[in-house]
Amino acid sequence: MVIVVCGWKCSGFQSRDFTTKSANCEAKATKMLESTDIPLLAVQTFLLLSLISASYVTWKTFRPRSEHSLRSVAILVLGDIGRSPRMMYHAQSFAENGFLTDLIGYGGI
Predict the structure, then answer these.
(1) Which pLDDT tens digit goes with each residue over 81-104?
(2) Is the Cβ–Cβ distance between 106 and 87 less than 8 Å?
(3) 82 domain-assigned
(4) Which residue range forms the structural domain that includes residue 98?
(5) For a FRET experiment, which of 10, 35, 82, 101 has its CA 20 to 30 Å from that of 42?
(6) Nearest to 104, CA basis, from 84, 86, 78
(7) Residue 57: inside a domain, yes or no?
(8) What global pTM score does this model have?
(9) How many angstroms separate the first and last alpha carbons of the chain?
């Protein structure tokens, strides 16, 4: 039979001397708990802050994105935009399909 007192295992109990060994085990567990260097409040505070930070990181990673970030496109033209009808057509097509379209390039002379 194994008895757990405050997280400490005390084994080897017989039914006839259960109260004596139980009291010894309880005293031993209490002494070990009192001799710890880290206060219980500090451990609880650390665990709470860890839980809060993990929750924030999870929320930041998996939160629903805004419609803007899902439906946006940037078109980069390496030259004069006015002399690139294909890129202008692509920008127009994206804009007509509901994308927020940014066109990046030279404005020409």
Answers:
(1) 888 889 889 999 999 998 889 988
(2) no
(3) yes
(4) 67-106
(5) 10
(6) 78
(7) no
(8) 0.37
(9) 91
